Amino acid sequence: MSQIPQKLVDYFIISGLNISSGLEPDQLSGDNLHCSPLERSYKPHILAHYPDNVLGNPFDAEAVCMLCHPRGLNFRTQRDNREPKFHSFLITKEDGARAHGAALTIYEEVENREICVAMQTLQAMHMAELSNAQSRTLYPHLSPAHSHGSPNHKPPEKISAGKMYDQKKDVLYGTKCISIISRLPLVATFEQFLQSLYDVVLEQEPPELSLISYVYNIIHEVPLLPPGRSMRLTIPKQSIVCQRPGITELPLLDYSLKDMFLLLSLDNILAIFRSVLLEHQVLLFSRDFQRLMLVSEGISALVFPFRWQHVYVPILPASLLHFLDAPVPFIMGLQGTNSKSLFEACSKANMCLVDIDSGTVESPDDLPAFPYMSELKQDLLQELRRQSSFNDQSIHQRDSGFVRDSYFGSDSAIGSTEGSTSSLRWSISDKLEMLQQNEALSRVMALSQKSGVISSLDDIRESLSDAAILAHRSGVSVARTLLDEHVKDLMFNSCIREIFLHYFLQVFGSYEEFIIGTAQDMESWINNRETMQNFDKTAFLSDHAEEHLHFLSPFTETQMFACFIDNKILSQWEDPDANLAVFEGRLKLFQDDQTDQRLRKFFRTAAAKEAESVIEKRATIVDITATSPKTLDDGGSCCHRPGFFPVMSSAVLNREPAGNRARSAQWRIKYGLATRGSEQKQKFEQREKYIQEIRSKTSHQPNLSDMNLKAMVNTNLKFMETLLKECKAKTKRMLVQKMGQEAVDLGHGEVTVIGVEENTLIASLCDLLERIWSHGLQQKQGKSALWSHLVSYNNDHALKNQENQSLDQSHISTDLTSSVALDGSCPCPSGTQTWPIRRQHRRKPSRGPELPALDVLPVSVLFDMRNVQQMTEIKTDVGYARAFVRLSLEKKLLSRHLKELLSNQELLRSLYKRYAFLRCEDEREQFLYHLLSLNAVDYNCFTNTFTTTVIVYRILVFPRLKLSGGATTANCWLSLAGQLGETDKLPLPKHTLDITVQNKNLGILTTMRIGHDNGGISPKWMVEHVLVRNEVTGQTYRFPCGRWLGKGADDGALERLLVAEPVPPSVDANELMEKCRTPPRCRSPSVPRRSNEPRLPVSEIQEKLSDVVNHLVKHFCKPEKERGSVTGLLCGEYGLVYCMEHVFQYGFKSSRLFRNRVFIWDFLEKVLFYLETLLSDTEHYQIAQEISTTMKSYCYVVSCINQASESLGKDGRFQIFICIGIRDRLLQRWIKLISKTPITASMYEEQSFLRDPSLVQFLIQILDSLKEFQISLEASLIKGVNL
Length: 1283
Description:
The chain has 1283 residues and is α+β, with helices and mostly antiparallel strands.
């Protein structure tokens, strides 16, 4: 098999005007017939390329021509600026492979008479259009200063004279491009080479060595530069040195980061840096192609060791503007004034917009800060100040930009050292062109021309050029100065990149500890890659500070991070990826040099210091001298015509030198570029196949070679296929992550833990929805495409309702008045939706209370949308859209809501183009089906995220209807508590069982206190249940009670603590109402306990106690941020208090020996009295220190509970006693102490828990298992008890 040639340059290309094709309009550039012929774009052609084909890099004529002429073929006259312009470009293939190009655009005189006649004809047709009133109506911007029919109207020939062409007076010039394609982005080297070739073309005398010799030399005789080496090349009239970093150094970056920092402020660069890391869409704009490449490649280099994995088109040709609709992350660049309006239209979207020329950056909403952002910024500022060309003003702010532009212009051209002056003229022309864009200078120029001081900008250009040439001839070595500057730029690049790398090492230094490796070989890993989890993101995130999680959580979901982890796993079977190898080497040095594990500030490692010195060393001590060009033996030459770049002989340039293959093999062996063995080659090909599969799923680079309608349709289908696959993967992962936890949180009905990973996945789903809703928009209307659609849907719905309401207004008014007067409710007329008027359910002592009813919340997009709109803490459209998605997901209505939103086909057609994802029925149905699968799990993503929003809670109290338990003369109150806070006492108006309150979000509700003041004639009140519904999320909680409130009833409690039981969403309102009307077992002491009442056996009590302790252990073994509330485990149904109540009741003699019921708290008070007696009688009793301490703690806690509040009942005090005992790790010691008192012997049977030694030992051992945990109690549990 033939080896891929190891040459520096693959192709040399000449492109421009093809005389035989004539003036062909550039169809791919869009409609530009309203412009003058000189301002239009024409189709360029590849005139020649050498050689014909290169193995491993086939020539793509369409792509090369499009990138050499991104704005098509242009023409100018002798009045226009015709200075050459250099720009680099990048060809990214569909498999992710890249080829680097460098192009110099020049202007050549058009000598062909037919072309000139054609241009003159087009000019005449254009002038005829200008004189046509109808045309001026269609294109009013053609003559904005000359309205037809006005007194100041001028004849057409006077309009836009600077853009007119007269064949008799003007000389026509057309663009021609000479370019290079290489495997290495040696931008400065190729720029000097192309410029030196054009210098030769401009000279009047023919050169000693023909141009074909230099071209032949660079495409055939100059070898590929090995890593870590420098090489001297011979170009016309000078030699230049290029260098390439070694395999242990940072990858090659031949663009000047110094120029980028002069163009953009530090804050703006960091904003782009964060947007790229989080894989947002990034759109650049500039009038200069090279600036687009500079910023794109500069930012891409700063994210090392990660690589951008998505669409990457730094220079977006006019034919690919439809790619701006791509629903995938991208980095794209727009150039020219014609693209300015498109760039401004994109400013409404939620993407990172970078106007390089003005130095402004508009970052996406809610862009989180990079970890250690302040330290990173300070280190960069310190490094920038260290450079002599920077000051605080150029770093922090951008003024008129004169200093910045002049600096950028001075680097744009590198001239020769021996008499060449064209580069100086180009540099000055670049500066003047940039200055001409300044509005203030334009006004000064207009005044100067009007007063006759100067006639045109050419006067200034010629004056400055003459001065520069004079300085050049006086002995100033321009090329040497610029060469030195280039080396300084490389060293500056290294310094800046080392700072960014330092913070990546700081953040990801321990990443290897969290990699999950399960595959035994590479083949099995590749085959099962889609179903395997390779990285423990939850553990990784929990290892970082909380303030860093806002950035790290979404970053660990990016494709660049996934590929980085994949490369690390693949490195165990083969040579590591180049970026990974450098990062691993630097990580080892970083850890060796780092004395403080929490050091934040940047410090230069030995490798970083060596990198700077090696760059300078390679520039001064050249390793390789390439073969110099020479006269070709067969007389290969081309005719020299000043100002005309020739098309050279293909026969000569396609022929390889004799013995070239043998020299290439020796070269590869000498510099470590030997070919791979068969086994290595097989592994390499296998890995490359996998990498290409991954890239094909995520990248979808535009195919520049095929831009017909069919290709565009196929590209759009690939985009939609990618969205569907991504949606399926995200929903599947969300389900696996959620169901991977226990299906029931510790036996209490739902998963109440919200982890970082869950929030990250939901945020990622929101981003996916935004990209889907952004695809194929007719016109971008806001930062959030989803929210814009919702607003349009709401407006359309309101308009239709208004039309319907106007037709039936009189009927509705009459019916409304009569209906409200009769029954207090507001009927809903057909076709409309109105808010119901709630009736208040009053307790009527004479007839008994009427139980409240719970109406069903509306299930509609508009209802949830309006709830979101009332959230005052949200300020952006993106925030509203995310809140809507989270609310719909929590209510299990996301798929249903989006289906309802998309059901309005008329609105959908007005908002989206035909090819949009949302207008493709099959893909849309599959998408909604994937979202429907999320209904299988429960989310609290809205409740736990928007912690400060105001929530409406509806509270319904269900008293007991029999035995006069539903009526009370007391003043009742209640208070709610949740994971995020609690309310004050909320008064319950008399005769009212249904109230609505507004309060800051309480989170997931946990407890409720309900009570009264025992006032009035008949204060006793029997409460069966209390229902509380969150009117925003629809989540309903049931608080079972079944106890009396009032002195002399039950245990004498005036208030009780109720524990929340979430009602499953599957339970409808009618079923819930029926359940609430059926009271639980009545525990009122007015009904004596019967002797035959079933009592739990010892084994069942032990089993229940073991279960609840096991649940508590599992609860505290979870990460702290994922635990949720412990209240349900302590005080809820079958909680610890419930089990301990059965422990104390087992074998209790109160029901048999005493007439009136004795509560457990009565027993504990007797023990208190006995222990206090022992402690006070020190003369007769000597107590060991440990036992004395236990006795004192028991007496202190029981006394404090008794003194806390008279409103607490005896069972409520026992509950507090158990909670405090388990919190302070005293309960098991108290039980051991209680079991030995004579009070216990008198009040308990011998087989009870407190008298049987084996059962006492069981209690102590099982409660001891909770000693290692720090149990925190909610304030509502021990409210009023101060210990």
